[in-house]
């Protein structure tokens, strides 16, 4: 069963961001094709049993390796072991990718302004999308909004700047908007639904949500996804169904 569904891959690198946050990369088998925004299912052998969890791919679909971004869940059966990974260790990778949080799902409205709203490790699928030139060609305005609890948990900031410089070279419409919810000194420190309701997010970005033009993706804390969806609906934005509508979501756990 394992060998039919999974391949065995090797850990190539590990980057630790904070005590509870790290990224790792691993080998990518040639058959593993995915679209930016999709997730992989990764397995670990624990006491002779295979435990599997979903992880959105951080890397671009064109990269030779696969990168993932993980939180350490206290006492979590999977991540409490995953956090001790070493380069060279083996991980299982399910052969097919999953998920519908991809830009290709949007048919109407046509691409114009893209809002990528993440909390915590929900940032991952958006990093993949931003490493695809097509994203930058298709959208005039791209707002990446990333909410974390503390400054120390704000991972990937330099990489985001590098990605924007490389993939979005010459693009003038990119904005990275960090939110640090437990730092009252931060420019934005309230939760996403509040910042939408009070207009502060749009004020900082310098643009308004627009049912006629906006594509809005939410990924991260399931309660954030729920509450933000409601705040956006109050503003006249609709869920994307069968290709039509503004909002697409993915719960991260
Ligand atoms: P988090 O609690 O999800 O917080 C990350 C950001 O989301 C913070 O800015 C937080 O604001 C904000 N947030 C939380 N609830 C929100 C809501 N209802 N509306 C809007 N914003 C909201 O922190 P995390 O570090 O990413 O994850 C925390 C815990 O979630 C972990 O310890 C773990 O137990 C679990 N988790 C599990 C998995 C899994 O795969 N099982 C994956 C990720 C996380 P505040 O500071 O105001 O709370």
From TrEMBL:
Nucleotide-binding is among the record's keywords: yes
PROSITE patterns: FAD_FR (PS51384)
Gene source species: Acinetobacter brisouii CIP 110357
Single biological process term from Gene Ontology: cellular response to oxidative stress
Catalytic activity from the UniProt record: 2 reduced [2Fe-2S]-[ferredoxin] + NADP(+) + H(+) = 2 oxidized [2Fe-2S]-[ferredoxin] + NADPH
GO molecular function, one term: ferredoxin-NADP+ reductase activity
Protein name, UniProt field: ferredoxin--NADP(+) reductase
Magnesium is among the record's keywords: no
PANTHER family: OXIDOREDUCTASE FAD/NAD(P)-BINDING DOMAIN PROTEIN (PTHR47878), OXIDOREDUCTASE FAD_NAD(P)-BINDING DOMAIN PROTEIN (PTHR47878:SF2)
Homology family: Belongs to the ferredoxin--NADP reductase type 1 family.
Enzyme class of the recorded protein, top EC level: oxidoreductase
Gene3D superfamilies with a match to the protein in the record: Nucleotide-binding domain of ferredoxin-NADP reductase (FNR) module, Translation factors
EC number(s) given by UniProt: 1.18.1.2
Key words, A-Z: Nucleotide-binding
Domain FAD-binding FR-type: 4-104
């Amino acid at each position: 069963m394992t060998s039919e569904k999974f391949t065995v891959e090797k850990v190539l690198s590990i980057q630790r961001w904070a005590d509870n946050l790290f990224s790792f990369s691993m080998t990518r088998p040639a058959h593993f094709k995915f679209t930016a925004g999709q997730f992989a299912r990764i397995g670990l052998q624990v006491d002779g049993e295979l435990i599997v969890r979903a992880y959105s791919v951080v890397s671009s679909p064109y990269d030779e390796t696969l990168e993932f971004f993980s939180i350490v869940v206290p006492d979590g059966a999977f991540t409490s072991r995953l956090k001790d990974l070493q380069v060279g260790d083996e991980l299982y990778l399910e052969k097919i990718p999953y998920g519908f949080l991809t830009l290709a799902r949007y048919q109407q409205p046509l691409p114009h302004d893209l809002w990528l709203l993440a909390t915590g490790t929900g940032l991952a699928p958006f990093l993949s999308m931003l490493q695809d030139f097509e994203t930058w060609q298709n959208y005039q305005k791209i707002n990446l909004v990333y909410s974390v609890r503390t400054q120390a948990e704000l991972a990937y900031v330099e990489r985001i700047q590098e990605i924007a410089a490389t993939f979005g070279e010459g693009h003038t419409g990119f904005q990275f908007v960090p939110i640090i919810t437990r730092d009252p000194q931060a420019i934005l420190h309230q939760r996403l639904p509040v910042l939408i309701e009070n207009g502060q997010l749009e004020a900082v970005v310098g643009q308004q949500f627009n049912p006629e033009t906006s594509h809005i993706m939410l990924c991260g804390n399931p309660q954030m996804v729920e509450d933000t969806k409601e705040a956006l609906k109050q503003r006249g934005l609709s869920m994307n169904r069968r290709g039509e509508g503004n909002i697409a979501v993915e719960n991260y756990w």
